[in-house]
Amino acid sequence: MHQVAQNSNSQHIEGHFESSAVVRDIVIGLSDGLTVPFALAAGLSGAVASSHIVVLAGLAEIAAGSIAMGLGGYLAARGDAEHYISERHREEREIVDCTEDEEEEIYEIFERYSVDRAAAAPVLASLKQNPAQWVNFMMRFELGLEEPAANRAHRSALTIAGSYIAGGMIPLLPYMLVSDNLAALKLSVIITLIALALFGALKGKLVGTGWLRNAIQTITIGGAAAAVAYLLARLLNGHAS
Amino acid sequence: MHQVAQNSNSQHIEGHFESSAVVRDIVIGLSDGLTVPFALAAGLSGAVASSHIVVLAGLAEIAAGSIAMGLGGYLAARGDAEHYISERHREEREIVDCTEDEEEEIYEIFERYSVDRAAAAPVLASLKQNPAQWVNFMMRFELGLEEPAANRAHRSALTIAGSYIAGGMIPLLPYMLVSDNLAALKLSVIITLIALALFGALKGKLVGTGWLRNAIQTITIGGAAAAVAYLLARLLNGHAS
């Protein structure tokens, strides 16, 4: 029940952040990769006769999606790192140039938790003796910023893109192997729903929010996206019954 | 230079969080919406003769992508809210059931910033007089969790999905209006690159990371995704020159 309190707490938090960043990237890539190419292929299979076009569109989508998400993840992570550094430089200047304002900000942080100035004063005195720690304190408690892990951007981009490609190939495989579009669609629906359920269950286990509930969620998202894409493509193609 | 220090700080931070959540959702939806349907349509236009199929695949992708991202955003936001509540309940129990452990955790938080026990003691004494604020303090400073805004999940889902649809329709419009695939592709490239540049510049202005740099980034992502999808589709279709 009280695992956090039992462990060394800072170790626990850091371990949690490290792994959760990679897990989050895999989850981002896989959940979209399993869903969007699946739904696109299902949609097209209801409207075009040739499975060649379904495969073509699916692979083009995987290429576009993995690059968009991977590069997007890269730039987002690099932006986070740069934002952290520039905010840190600003705090470093501010504790020198506007010392009194920054002292006042410390009191304000504690006031939000009904800690009065007298109780906060010893903490401020201690931080003032150690400017580097004062800056660390302001980064975390004033601005709510964590220092991003080094090389996070590259790893994030490759993890997201790789997971998207891996996820996207699963629903496409049947269209590559079976020439009949309807048979391929059925096979694709079956293996993708199984993959979505396994992925959701595993994600629920890892994140700790329950395997069954997460499995139902991932199936719902993938199923809803595929059903809407299928109906839309049929309607537009004049095949609606 | 010191805008943060000049304003009331907590107001500044809250205003920043509120708007950044909506802006972030719009950015998420628009950047993928402008990029992936654009790249898919460009890729297919190099491989299939009929612009009807390009439009069909593009609309199916927009349907699939907006549902996957919108529902995904909804579940992520709801998950955040539930995680916050369950961690809050745990902290509420812990400050009653394992008061000493929780006190020790406060000392540990301050020790990370070289603030010794004597200096931290008055803060602890003050927090102990006000259990609700003690829990607030632990949520923010031990666990690094912010209370999510109410109804965040619904708004997040609709904002992301709407932005994805709006972004995705821009590159598809030429294929709907111009029957020649090559002419439509050229028009789609021009208007989408303009839209990506405007979007990037505006994003850079809003987030404060420079308009030119962000415009170049969004053009790079969209252009790279479209170029790879185009080459891949042509290669697979045996049209490679």
Q: Which descriptors apply to this entry?
A:
about 240 residues; disordered N terminus; Ccc1_fam (chains A, B); membrane (chains A, B); homodimer; mainly alpha; about 0% strand; elongated; manganese ion transmembrane transporter activity (chains A, B); transmembrane (chains A, B); transmembrane helix (chains A, B)
Task: Characterise this structure.
Two copies of one chain form a homodimer. Chain A has 241 residues and is mostly helical. Chain A is built from nine helices and no strands. Chain A has helices at residues 3-6, 9-45, 51-97, 99-111, 117-128, 131-141, 152-177, 181-207, 211-236. Chain A is elongated. Chain A starts with a helix and ends in a 5-residue tail after the last helix. The model of chain A is unreliable at 1-18 (pLDDT under 50). The interface between A and B is large, with 85 and 85 residues.
Tell me which oligomeric state these chains represent: homodimer
Q: Which shape of chain A, going by the Cα principal axes?
A: elongated
> For the terminal residues of chain A, how far apart are their CA atoms?
56 Å
Q: Let me know the largest β-sheet of chain A.
A: none
Number of extended strands of chain A: 0
Return the domain count of chain A: 1
Radius of gyration of chain A: 25 Å
Q: Can you give the helix content of chain A as a percent range?
A: over 70%
Using a beta-carbon cutoff below 8 angstroms, give the protein chain pair with the largest interface and the number of residues from each chain. A-B, 85 and 85 residues
